[in-house]
Structure formats: structure tokens, C-alpha cells
Amino acid sequence: MIRTAGRGWLRRSATVPRPAGRLVCFPHAGGSAASYAVFGPLLPPRTELAVVQYPGRGDRFAEPFEDDVRRMAAAVSAELLALEPAPLTLFGHSLGALVAYETALLLQQNDVPLARLAVSASPPPRLAGGGDTHLRDDDELWKIVCGFGGVEPEIAADEDLRGVLLPILRSDVRANELYEPPGDPNALDCPVRCYHGIGDPLIDESQLPEWAEVSTGPFALQRRPGGHFHIYAEPGVLIGDILDAAAPRRAVS
């Protein structure tokens, strides 16, 4: 169970004394800490789950949105630096992949080693950003988002829920579309794993191997069934792969 008491950016599972590892998860656009609730029971023993809670949703509903990826990463990295040290694995899905990458850069600048960076459903930083979806009117934005497959039909038809979700989605889509990669970042030195949902209409699969360029460490690209929201298809298998430390080659599968 994820604790939601208090403010701040991280929602941690029941505290694991002297954790052997910590999996930090970054939600997709429109997502919240609850998006990763299914991950908690699937983690290995002594592995702590820490999920990012973006402002404007969940227990941070009354807070103003944040639509700058680097500011998000700065806030998350500051909280991670304050925690008891443990091997860190960062996993970000869609918008969360960019926030996770920027967080990884900041942690490395502070001499915090990463076990690995895992990213999903996002183009590599150099090719990310751009687009005007966040400028569309409410009806068109809602239609586009529902077309991604992440909104249940009963939610899509609920006018009250739409009114709550649309401002959140618009802010997150803006953050994604206005993202600009670092001009000349230092390469990470951790393994990188990239996940692609087969049939994801939002991602050009041919671009994904470029994620290898963000690090001098080993790289692997995995294809999974489930489209853009493949993370909910056999999540136990996904978690097992994310946390597997063995990544001996820069391979694409």
C-alpha cells in the first residue's frame, strides 16, 4: 500500500528497513501515484517502491500544476537525495520517461550511482517535445486523449470527471510538448532499458534505439504487447525485467 500522508513529490510503499533496492516510478501524462499501485505487491523482498506524485492530483489536488519537466526532476531528485541510500532504479512511462531521465542526470551530478534507468513509451530526449495538442480546445483534446486507450469508456462519458481530468491532462501534455533536451548533457553511466508497447500509435519505434545514446552503459530495447499502456499487461513480468541487474550487452530484442 502506498502511503499518501504529507506533501512532497514521493509516495513510498510501507517503509523497508535498509532496503536492498528502491524502484522509483514516474507516471504518464494524466497519471498519479495511484497509477503504480499494482506494482507494490509484485516487488521482490526488501525492495522499496517510491512513486512520484505530480501536483494537481491525488493528495496534491489543490496545488498548482507543474508543466516544466526539468523543474519536476529537480524536485524529485532533491527528495531522493534526502532518503536513506539504496540502489536506485528509475522507471518512467511516457511523460514520466523524460522526467526520469532528467532526474537521472541530476542524481549523477550529485554522485549518486543508479542501478539503471528504464524508460517506456517515449521518444529519446533529442527527438522528444514538439506538438500543439495542449493548445486544442477541450472537446478535441479529450477526444485525442481518449483515443490513446488510457481512459475507460465510463470515465470518458462522465462530464464531471472530464472536467476534473482535462486541466491535468492539458498541463501534462504541455510539459511533454514544450520539453527541450539538454544542449550538451554528460552521458549517464548506468544501464538503460527501453520498453515499447507493440502497436503504440504515439511512438515511432524506429527512434527508440537512440535511447542508447544517453548512457555509456549497456542498453536493451524490449517490445511488449499492450500498446501505449503496455505497463498494465503482465506487470510482474515487466517489473522482473526492470529490476534484473544483468544487462551485459547493448542489444535490441
Note down, in words, how this protein is organized.
The protein is α/β, with parallel strands linked by helices and 253 residues long. It contains 6 helices and 8 strands. Helix 6 links the parallel strand 7 and strand 8. The relative contact order is 0.15. The N terminus and C terminus are likely disordered.
Comma- or semicolon-separated keywords:
alpha/beta; Rossmann fold; 28% helix; eight-stranded mixed β-sheet; 253 residues; disordered C terminus
- Gyration radius (Cα, Å) is 17 Å
The profile of the biggest β sheet is: 8 strands, mixed
* Category by helix and strand content: alpha/beta
The tally of strands reads 8
Structurally, how many domains make up the residues?
1
InterPro entries: AB_hydrolase_fold, TEII, Thioesterase
Protein name: Surfactin synthase thioesterase subunit
Domain Thioesterase: 22-236
Family: Belongs to the thioesterase family.
Helix and strand topology:
Elements: E1 10-12, E2 21-26, E3 47-52, H1 69-81, E4 88-93, H2 95-109, E5 114-120, H3 138-147, H4 153-156, H5 159-177, E6 192-197, E7 219-224, H6 235-243, E8 251-252
Parallel strand pairs: 2-3, 2-4, 4-5, 5-6, 6-7, 7-8
Antiparallel strand pairs: 1-3
Helix pairs in contact: 1-2, 3-5
GO biological process, one term: lipid biosynthetic process
Protein name: Surfactin synthase thioesterase subunit
Organism: Kribbella sandramycini
